[in-house]
Give the backbone structure.
Amino acid sequence: MRWWCWKRLLCASLLLLLLLWCLLLLARDVQKKWPVAGRFRLAPRGQLLAWPGLGAVQGVDFASLFAGSHASPRCDWGQVLLILVTSAPGNVEARHVIRRTWAAQEGQPPNRWQTVFLVGQAAEAEVARGVQREQQEFGDILVGNYKDTYRNLTLKVMHGLKWASKKCRPRYILKTDDDCFVNTDRLPAFLAEVNTVRTGLYVGSLFSQEKRQVIREPSSKWYVSRQDYHPDEYPPYASGIGYVLSLDVAEKILEAARRVRPIPVEDAYVGILAEEAGVRAKASARFAKHNVRWRVCNYRYLMVIHHLSPREQEAAWRRCRRGRAPAVAVRAASRPPAPGCRR
Ligand SMILES: *[C@@H]1O[C@H](CO)[C@@H](O)[C@H](O)[C@H]1NC(C)=O
């Protein structure tokens, strides 16, 4: 080839490069101005699109969850256990009964623990004012700056975990719901004295493989689109009825949440983040997905029970206290309940 031919080729490639660059800048601008589908952005999987120039696809926008002028609950530094209870703004009765039963503290327990309710923005002004009054009276509600809807549960839990890691730094965090019973008579002591896993802990009631299929039916409460999460199956994860995280795991999960796009299924999202962070979910029969008629002796073993009405919470709390037993019985109760002990 002649030299002028080379020159033309060089000019053309330079022009092409310049054009590409302009396109990239434009694309980034468009993405900033019109974030597709709000917080649940359109991209195969967050971390795959971290392409320089296009800007990394964002995970959870933590700063936006904290905006707002609500007074946070107080939280003592360095407790053994912080219990985060997801609760809808209108579930006043469920919160009251929890305060009267398993969240009630007698004196100063040797293994310090605390319960905090996670509540978002209520749709009705009257309900929102009620939440504010309740927080002023009890000081145990963390109000987040997100619309309180079922499909925003993920944001609720991320907000709670972030707050816990910034303001409390407990040794362990239990995430649970307001229709669950927590055996506070035993769990803090169990974590501090019986359990030997201080770090890397992510434990709860795990779902079987069939139950980990991603639901693609748009009318379902648990619908997740292929753009939001591409694989057909979630990694092993603990049911949202209750799972315990050691603080280091909570922080790894929060770190991963900045990169991985949230999906509306809260417990599955935590499982995805744990997998990202290299943390394996551990199964424990102490977390019961169903409320059968447990006998007193079961309360020496179980730590979280799902699906209780406010009335059942009171009955469970009575049985739990009747199940208080000397140290020998506690050791025996570290094994799964004997068949005779179930109903
Ligand atoms: C979640 O909360 C945000 C912020 O309040 C809101 O814009 C969005 O519509 C909510 N999403 C859903 C699915 O409810």
In short: Residues 31-55 have pLDDT under 50 and may be disordered. The domain at 62-182+200-285 is CATH 3.90.550 (Spore Coat Polysaccharide Biosynthesis Protein SpsA; Chain A).
